[in-house]
Amino acid sequence: MANNVQFGILSTFDHNSQTWRTYKSRIGQYFVANDINKTTDASGKKRKAILLSALTEGTYKLTTDLVRPKDIENVPYEDLLSALDEHFTPKCVGFGERHNFYIAVQQAGETYSQWAARLRGLTEKCKFHNVEEALRDKFIMGMLPGREKEKIYTKDLADLTLAKVVELAENLSRGRAAAAASGGAGAGSGAAGAAPDAAAASISTATEQLYKIAQKSVSVGKVKCGVCGFSNHKSADCRFANYVCKKCHVKGHLRKMCGKVNYVVVGNGDKGESDGDDDVYAN
User: Structurally, how many domains does the chain consist of?
Assistant: First the structure.
């Protein structure tokens, strides 16, 4: 009796959001798990049916267009794969691939292991003569600024492989995190890839706050002039001592220092000396 048990989960494929190369590999593994191969499926009809049934409507329509003028039902499985490969596999553009590799940098929140893995993927079509050396150099130069990068820059290149660099960076990062958690010397520094230095930023902020407090203390310690309101002289020395207040018409202070409340002036009164500078020096 035939075995109807199926192994694995085969998801649908949408070319708008998924990569054909990755999906092709997955469906290949699905066929392996369920013993579907050239021996058990010599004509390829079963593999073709499984593939086409896994395509979204948009991708299925694209596939039918790729094999025209042939009808998709009459296209062999291998020819169908070739058509999809040719359409979805980008052509190698020489230095364009290396350009993408060389401009890559570690992203914020990306661990050193993740950064190394992403770099390795970018070398696929670069055709480097020495891939490991290129990976090691770019890994170090593309690291986010921090103590880990500074430490690795001091190392000798003789026996420094990519694996050793990644291990060293990870160890330094974990050691810094452990020191910060225990309140040690590294408490002010961030985890892997943290930039700029949090400790330096904290010190700068604290210094600025202390300066503001000091300035405020100096200002509070001064006596405010009762004539004009400024704090750089005494009332007796104020050059506005003979000015007449425009609010209460009493000589001896400016309008902004007047203590009268709801004072209403009837008539013009005798203003005496002009309070012309009152508006200039008013708050």
Answer: 3
